[in-house]
Amino acid sequence: MHPFADSTLTLLTSGYAWAPGLRRRHGDGPAVPARLMGRPALLLHGPAAVDFFYDERHVLRHGALPGPVLDTLFGRGAVHTLDGETHRVRKELFTTRLMTPDGVDDLGRLAREHWLRTVDGLRGRRAVLFDEMAVALAAAVCEWSGVPVADGAAVRRLAEDCVAMVDGFATPGPRHWKARRARSRQEAALARAVADVRRGAVALSSGDRPTVLEAVAAHRDADGTPLDLHTAAVELLNVLRPIVAITWFTTFAAHALHHFPAVREELRADHGRYARAFAHEVRRCYPFVPFVGGLAARDLRFDGQDVSEGTLVLLDVPGHHRDPGLWPEPNRFDPRRFLGREPGPGELIAQGGGNARTGHRCPGEDITVHLLATLAATLPGLGLDLPDQDLGIPVGRIPTRPRSGVIVRVPSRSR
Ligand code: HEM
After folding, report:
1. Could you report the per-residue pLDDT of 78-135, keeping only the tens digit for each?
2. Domains of the chain by range and CATH?
3. Confidence (pLDDT) at 4
4. Quick one: pLDDT at residue 96?
5. Which of 55, 87, 100, 352 could covalently link to 82 via disulfide, CB atoms 3.0 to 4.6 Å apart?
6. pLDDT for residue 315
7. What is the pLDDT of residues 315-356, one digit of tens each?
8. Phi, psi torsion values for 220, nearest 5 degrees
9. Mean pLDDT to the nearest integer, 365-386
10. Ligand 1, CB within 6 Å, residue ranges
């Protein structure tokens, strides 16, 4: 019998406070044993842990993610759950299609246009920034990816569903059931869209690149077979959902700009470099992904501890970003720490560590940073007013966000 009691319930109730609490009780070491979902687990922390975790000889993904997370956040059969050659070939779908600088620029331009149009439509009114940004991002990603949506109501529904899938993955209550319904609805719609492309019922893109929808419809896995309709829908959603989820970061960005007026002024005066540094600092300071996880591929040793095959291995994400050994004054919000430089592969791990092409690191990191920088840069010039509201960010809720969602009053005329 493993000596530690199962922490699943504590994790569900303490949220982001669970990992730091566990580490503190065990002397803040780089490897802390635990028990989660009925199996032995090890919580890893620090740069050596990042290298260890992202070595496929150590940690595999198949069977690591619990069903309730797959049925809400990622989808059954998603790239997240694959290993080895099967993973590498599926991953190319994301890295070759999404990582082109032109594709990222196009999406950034569309996101900015849709967001500014949304703001214009809200003149003289109050709105919740989190919700409206999600809709603008959904509109942008549909246009960019070639995914058909009937009208504005369908875009709003897609935005709400994508938010629900992220919001409900780590809770057993009503948010979870909402997330499951959202996933079923969107998987069905996207499977129809892929089927339409395959039978030639929609016009192919006129540009020199296939759209994301066309690329997914045409993709062949390592065994040479096309994705079945369900898996194709799952992977399309693995593009749409996280792009809409950038609303978590832009909402945190609005929170930071409200609390740090000096940063707001620097961003207002900026011509690009500071906005990118600001985006990195938002990803470092605000909690979103609590940890990433996999299963020990064989019997291993890390930092003098035996790790038996099949142990659930978790890598601490928010703790890494607040470690005083890695960051001078870690609790200070200071975008200048990233000014004129990009973070190293194991430095900022908000979207995973290691290499995005060969490992499980997020393939959407360039998109996230570019969209976050572009959209945040619009905020200081919009003249948005924040009325009294609860901007507290509860640590017990995964994923968390400012309680109010950041309510803004949009001026009647642009200033
Ligand atoms: C994987 C975070 C945006 C697509 C991941 C991982 C994290 C992450 C932590 C897992 C790393 C691991 O398991 O080791 C985020 C955050 C985002 C974001 C916080 C901000 C909203 C995006 C975007 C896209 C995307 C914009 C696509 C356009 C994916 C995919 C994977 C992934 C497909 C699976 C990669 C694999 O297993 O090989 N993301 N991501 N994500 N992300 Fe993101």
Report:
1. 999 999 999 999 999 999 877 788 999 999 999 999 999 999 999 999 999 999 999 9
2. 8-409 (1.10.630.10)
3. 57
4. 87
5. 87
6. 97
7. 999 999 999 999 999 999 999 999 999 999 899 999 999 999
8. -120, 135
9. 97
10. 79-80, 91, 94, 98, 238-239, 242-243, 245-246, 249, 288-289, 292, 350-352, 360-364, 367-368
Task: Name the band, by pLDDT with cuts 50, 70 and 90, for residue 3.
Answer: very low
CA distance 310 to 298: 7
Ligand 1 pocket, mutate which of 44, 362, 368 (most atoms under 8 A from CB): 362
**Interface ipTM > 0.90:** yes
Chain segment 139-149, per-residue pLDDT in tens: 999 999 999 99
Residue 318 makes CB contacts below 8 A (sequence gap 6+) with 16, 19, 20, 287, 289, 290
Cα distance between residue 251 and residue 257, in whole Å = 10
CA of residue 49 to ligand 1 center, whole Å: 19
**Closest residue CA from atom 29 of ligand 1:** 362
